[in-house]
UniProtKB/TrEMBL annotation, chain A:
Residues 23-253 form the ABC transporter domain. GO terms for cellular component: ATP-binding cassette (ABC) transporter complex. This is ABC-type quaternary amine transporter. It comes from the Bacteria. It comes from Arthrobacter wenxiniae. The keyword Transport applies. Its EC number is 7.6.2.9.
Length: 375, 276
């Protein structure tokens, strides 16, 4: 069965030229008795921006989203939408589209009736609301399925209905709470692209919550990494991935080699460090300051060298090579540490090298990031 | 190698069904026995009946003492069902999915009429209604019935609500639904089976209720069970059996409605295939 595409459309006529959808959280704090779920959060979403809250369970990301939607009341701070404080507004007056984790479609209503619901609540005349609902279903690729009940639709189709339902009334922004959790990998990737395309064509702001870093990387204009109720790092996907500020962020965003380091000197965005058993290194310094340091090198940035180098390199024993299909994962014991090196199977740099062989690895200075070791 | 065969189910079931048959008969026969007695043609209650005739049934409906008792029971049941459903359902929805201090106490209060002995309630209501001057009509009886019916409706509605996805309420709210709309579109469809069950429970509790109705009876406010009770002592006619047969028939109809409703919902759920 082919998965239908969500058709991009021109922005609906009649929308204000001033872009709407700016969300701002100022010093927002949420406590449950003794427990601090969200700790003085400052967050700003620009109109049309796709922002993802990324973090493990318990990081406060879902709570934050619930506070923006109005389902949870913040203990202190303020939430603003398009410059106006909404702290006292109940969810139904905030004009935000929400897609829940299990879609929460009304089981006794058809797909069309589900989509029409928001318009009904706004007293839109029947004929117009039916037309707009059919329009929305068209746009998410469900033309003709409006009459079906949710239980007659597949997971992917239900998600599309949930999207159509949340967008049909032209909300200021769209909030999505881990909406892909129930989908299989292929469908998930397809939907990621579709949602992103839809968002771009509508120019709507999105606040997306997920614990899946691949998803965050694929869809976001900006990733906000959260841990224990606080924002740890915020920035475009490329920046957060390649320039994590702490070892925790580096490990959360993907595999990485973390080598404890001592800083010898810093100058103009570069630092000279001592990597213990791995000798000297020259790394990117973006101003990370702390008590203990480490250098983070992604496995795909390590390469095999033919000969040992003076710096940014190591010599060691090839422990194992695992063929993962598209990539090969090597484990190398060098300088007293186990390093992970990933290369494309087509490269086959260490092809045929047996376990136990001596290998040389190296990396470029600008691919190694100096960061703070949180411990 | 020794082959193990599954025990043939037919053989296992026989002893169990042989045991359950007499139990079933013991439970059902005393209830059904009123029907042949009601259809008996004689001035006194006799068993076994010596003929089938509708004379007693006709006599029942021609007797104003009995028809007014029937009418009184219906009125009390009407009050009980309406108020029981309103209070029981409201309590179930209000207490659903919320946590607050003292919640258990509130639930206990709602369920209390089920636990307090009926005769205690009867005396309390009797004194209360006299003190507020509400006597001589079916209204105080109906109100008392409503009180004991409410816990049943609360329980059946609460059971239906267990199947409610909490995200549905938030979903409706985010789309602009106010409290009433949320109730209408999210709660009602889910609790409807519970409400119907609860209403039927409330009805049967009220129709059957004897003690409180006895305490608060007055001319014109005599319910069917009370009339039956008095007549058994002083005026043993087949009309009593007709009354019983009537109640049994009503109860059976109520039960059949329930069964048909449940079966119909199950079969419609099965008929809808899931899309590929």
């Amino acid at each position: 069965m082919s998965t239908p595409t969500i058709a991009p459309t021109a922005r609906q006529p009649g929308t204000a030229t001033a872009r709407k959808g700016a969300i701002e959280l100022r010093q927002v704090r949420k406590t449950y008795g003794e427990v601090v779920a969200v700790d003085r959060l400052d967050l700003s979403i620009q109109p049309g921006e796709f922002v993802t809250l990324l973090g493990p369970s318990g990081s406060g990301k879902t709570t934050t989203m619930m506070m923006v939607a109005g389902f949870e009341e913040h203990t202190s701070g303020s939430v603003m939408i398009d410059g106006a404080p909404v702290d006292s507004l109940p969810p139904r007056e905030r004009n935000l589209g929400v897609v829940f984790q299990n879609y929460a479609l009304f089981p006794h209503m058809s797909a069309r009736e589900n989509v029409e619901f928001a318009l009904r609540m706004r007293r839109v005349p029947k004929a117009e609301s039916r037309r707009r609902a059919d329009d929305a279903l068209d746009r998410v690729g469900l033309a003709g399925l409006g009459g079906r009940k949710p239980r007659q639709l597949s997971g992917g189709q239900q998600q599309r209905v949930a999207l159509a339902r949340a967008l049909v009334f032209n909300p200021a922004a769209l909030l999505l709470d881990e909406p892909m959790a129930a989908l299989d990998k292929r469908l998930r990737e397809h939907m990621q692209e579709e949602i992103k395309a839809l968002q771009k064509s509508l120019g709507i702001s999105v606040l997306f919550v997920t614990h899946d870093q691949d998803e965050a990387m694929a869809m976001s204009d900006r990733i906000v990494v959260m841990k224990d109720g606080r924002i740890v790092q915020s920035g475009p996907p490329e920046e957060v991935y390649n320039h994590p500020v702490t070892d925790w962020v580096a490990s959360f965003l993907g595999d990485t080699n973390l080598i404890p380091a001592t800083v010898i000197s810093r100058e103009g965005g570069e630092a000279v460090v001592d990597l213990g058993g791995l000798g000297a290194g020259r790394v990117r310094d973006r101003g990370a300051r702390g008590d203990k340091y480490a250098v983070s090198i992604r496995p795909e940035h390590l390469t095999f060298r033919v000969a040992p180098g003076r710096e940014n390199s190591g010599t060691g024993e090839l422990v194992s090579s695992t063929n993962l299909g598209a990539t090969i994962r090597h484990r190398i014991m060098a300088g007293g540490r186990e390093l992970q090196l990933r290369e494309l199977s087509s490269n086959g740099g260490a092809a045929g090298q047996p376990a136990g062989a001596t290998v040389h690895v190296g990396w470029d200075a600008d691919k190694a990031q100096l960061l703070v070791l949180e411990g | 190698m020794k082959r193990f065969s599954a025990p043939r189910p037919g053989i296992r079931r026989k002893p169990l069904s042989l045991l359950s048959l007499p139990v079933f008969a013991f439970l059902v026969v005393p209830t059904l026995i009123v029907v042949p007695v009601a259809l008996n043609n004689s001035r006194y209650i006799t068993f076994p009946p010596d003929g089938i005739s509708l004379a007693a049934v006709q006599g029942f409906f021609a007797d104003p003492a009995w028809t007014s008792a029937l009418s009184a029971s219906m009125q009390a049941a009407g009050i009980a069902v309406v108020l029981g459903v309103v209070f029981g359902a409201s309590a179930a929805i209000g207490l659903h999915g919320r946590k607050f201090p003292g919640q258990q106490a509130v639930v206990g209060l709602v369920l209390a009429p089920m636990i307090v002995p009926t005769v205690v309630l009867a005396l309390a209501f009797y004194q209360f209604f006299i003190s507020v001057g509400l006597v001589g009509s079916i209204v105080p009886i109906g109100l008392a019935h409503a009180v004991i019916a409410t816990p049943y409706v609360y329980l059946t509605t609460r059971a239906s609500l267990a199947g409610l996805n909490p995200a549905l309420v938030r979903s409706a709210q985010s789309l602009g639904a106010g409290t009433l709309s949320v109730f209408r579109h999210v709660h009602m469809p889910v609790i409807l089976p519970g409400l119907i069950s609860g209403a039927l429970f409330a009805f049967s509790v009220s129709i059957d209720e004897t003690v409180m109705s006895l305490f608060m009876q007055s001319p014109g406010a005599t319910t069917l069970p009370v009339k039956m009770f008095t007549d058994i002592q002083f005026n043993l006619t087949p009309k009593i059996a007709v009354s019983s047969a009537l109640l049994v028939t009503v109860a059976t109809i109520g039960l059949l409605i329930q069964v048909v409703y449940v079966l119909k919902r199950r079969s419609t759920a099965r008929m809808m295939p899931l899309a590929a």
